[in-house]
Amino acid sequence: MHIKQLYIDGAWQPAAAGGQRAIVDPGTGETIARVSYGTTADAEHAIRAARTAFDHGEWPRRPAGERAARVRALADALRGEASALARIETANTGKTLAESASDVHDAAAAFDYFASLAVTESGSVNATQPHALSVTLREPVGVCGLITPWNYPLLQAAWKLAPALVAGNTVVIKPASLTPLSTHRLVELAHDAGLPRGVLNLVTGGADVGDTLASSAEVDLISLTGSNAAGASVMRAAASNFKRVSLELGGKNPNIVFADADFDTALDYALNAAFFNAGQMCSAGSRLLVERALHDRFVEALAERIAAIRLGHGVDAATRMGPVISAQQRDRVLALIGDAAREGARIVCGGRAPAGDAFATGFWIEPTLIADVRTTMAIARDEVFGPVLTVETFDSEDDALALANDTPFGLAGAVWTRDFARANRVMRRLRAATVWVNDYNVTLPGAPWGGYKASGIGRELSRSGLDEYTELKHAYVNFEASPQRWF
C-alpha cells in the first residue's frame, strides 16, 4: 500500500522518525490508506520552510491578483475532481456521497469567494491635515498554523487555506489524524497549481504536531477548529508568545419550534439539523425546543420519520445516514445515551448500535430521539457529536429563550414561526453568533461563521474571515516636513 507522505518545502517526504498511521473506513473498519505520521521534528521543519518562504520568498510580495489567480485555480481543480474527491471523503469519514459532494462544492466556492475578495481588499486614506495623509492598509500576518477537524476535513481546510493564502501568508496545515486523505489530495492539487515552495506545508501527525504549531515563536497565527479541550490547549501554548488565535469550537445549538410554525417544514429541517453527517457537526441542531401545544404531535412525527432513516455505507445511493467516525466516538455517544436513560430521560427510538450483518463491522449508532429531557442532564449540556436529538418543552417566548441560552456555547440556533415580529425578537435575544429563521445550517462564503461564549474566538468566512489573516497597518505621510526645534 502506497504511503501518503508529508509535504514540506515543496517536496513530498516521509516523517523524520519513519512513523506511519493506518487510515480506516468508518463504515467497514478496514484500512484504506497509510500516511506518514509526523512528530515535533517534522512540524519544526515545516515551520522553518514556511518562515523562510514568508520572510524571503515572493509570495507575500506578489500582487493580490496573482495570488488570487492561484487560489482560483484550486477551486477549478476541486471541481474537476469533484467525483473522486467525494469518494475519498466518503471512504475516510463515512459521509454519504451526497454529503461529500456538497462539501467539495462548498470548498470550491470558498476558494472562489476569497480569490474574488482579495482583489477588492482596500485600506483607507484620510486627508487629516493639508500637508499629510493618514493611510491604513492590510498586510499578511506571516506564518499560519492551521489545524482542521475530522468531521469536515476538506471543507474546513478550504475555509482556512483560502483566506490565508490570498492574503499572502505561508501555511503549515495539520489535518485531523483520523481524516487526512482529502486534505492530502488538496495539497497535491495545490502543488500542481504551482504554489511556490514553502508557501503550503502539510504535516500529518498527533497532538505534538499541533502543540508545536501553537507554541512556536516562528508561527504568527494559529487557527483551530475542534473540541474545547483542544482549543484550551492551543490558547495555553500560544500565550507563551502572544500569537494571534482563531478558534471555532463546540456547539449545543437550540432549534426552537413555536406552535404556529409550518409543521411539515419544521419537521423536515429538525431531522436534517440533527442527523446530517450522523450529527457530527458543531452546528448540529441537537437541542429541539418545542412549544407545549405542539410537543406530543411533533415528537410522534419525529419518531416515525427517524425510524425510516436508512443506515448504510456512504457509497450506497439509498443510504441516508452513515456511521460515526470511530469506535471511541461510538462508545462515547452510546454512554451518553445510557446516562440520559438512567437520569430519567425517555429513549423514544434508537439508542443502540444497530443489529444485523451489515453493521457487524464499522462504527454504527441508530438515529436516536430522546424526550423528557431536563436542561441539567449531560445529554442536554454536552456536545454529543453523534446522531442524537433531544426534545425539551417550553410554554412561552421567554421560557424558550431561557432554555436556549442556558448553555456555555453560543455557536448557532434557529427559530421556527410564522410570526416575524416574534422571530426578530428571538433572533436578537439568542446568544449565538448565527441564527437561522425558518431554515437551518445554511453557511455562505460571504457570511461570517464563528461563536459566542465557549464556541470560539474570531470568525471564518466573509471579509471578517479574511481580516483574521491580516495585520492592519497605519502610515502617516508628511509631505511638508520641517524642523520643529522642540529640543
Description:
This protein is α/β, with parallel strands linked by helices and 487 residues long. The protein folds into 2 domains: 3-249 and 455-474, 3-Layer(aba) Sandwich (Aldehyde Dehydrogenase, Chain A, domain 1), CATH 3.40.605.10; 254-437, Aldehyde Dehydrogenase, Chain A, domain 2 (3-Layer(aba) Sandwich). The protein is 39% helix and 22% strand. It has helices at 40-56, 64-80, 82-93, 97-118, 153-166, 181-192, 207-215, 228-238, 263-275, 292-307, 327-342, 378-381, 397-405, 420-429, 462-467; strands at residues 3-4, 6-8, 11-13, 20-24, 31-36, 124-129, 132-140, 143-147, 170-174, 200-202, 221-225, 244-248, 254-257, 287-291, 346-349, 368-371, 388-394, 409-410, 412-416, 434-437, 449-450, 452-453, 456-457, 459-460, 470-478. The strands form 7 sheets. Strands 15-16-17-14-13-19-20 form a 7-stranded mixed sheet, sandwiched between helices. A 6-stranded mixed sheet has the order 10-9-8-11-12-23, sandwiched between helices. Strand 11, helix 8 and strand 12 (244-248) form a beta-alpha-beta unit. Helix 7 packs parallel to helix 8 (228-238). The radius of gyration is 24 Å and the shape is globular. It starts with a strand and ends in a 9-residue tail after the last strand.
